[in-house]
Amino acid sequence: SQKIEQNSEALNIQEGKTATLTCNYTNYSPAYLQWYRQDPGRGPVFLLLIRENEKEKRKERLKVTFDTTLKQSLFHITASQPADSATYLCALDYRGNTPLVFGKGTRLSVIA
Amino acid sequence: EADIYQTPRYLVIGTGKKITLECSQTMGHDKMYWYQQDPGMELHLIHYSYGVNSTEKGDLSSESTVSRIRTEHFPLTLESARPSHTSQYLCASRVAGGNNEQFFGPGTRLTVL
After folding, report:
1. Quick check: A27 and A49 in contact, CB under 8 A?
2. Average pLDDT of B52-71?
3. Which of A36, A70, A84, B36 could make a disulfide contact with A89, Cβ separation 3.0–4.6 Å?
4. Interface contact A32-B50, CB threshold 8 A
């Protein structure tokens, strides 16, 4: 079955630095890869989607890359702020009628 | 703000009770999902549906059941609640086809005593 790994359970960085989160998967590549943000006690919220034929996608301070050769996606938050502190989930999105496959998430703490 | 609603938001009940967690969405989405998530832990898919009268079991073995009689409504029922069912339950929906974001409800925090 498909396995998805996010680099670490927790990541602490200083305010103003760039946070980089990693999502690795095994087996076959998805058609799309999605990133979500989850705050404690709340449901995840969609942030970005990148297609298999796209190398990079940006949205404001967020940047996602997708390397199907390495079977890896990187999620960057530039000029990080304490308000960016949350858990970030990656999800694999395959064509056809299969549910999204979510990673366990990385808990990001941005320290002022 | 996503148009997906869950009730109740919090529920404390005794062992052996039958409960139904409600989930409704007003976006006309065909795909709906139920997840179980303990604090600080990963999401576990327990049930999903791709349309009216369609339901499938997810990855996590569950003693719950679901029904999909209307597109907008996807309730989850526990016939006999146990302390091991204590968790957060998240409902989600999505447009059919790939390349689309998934919308999550606010969740129901269930405590079984």
Report:
1. no
2. 91
3. A36
4. no
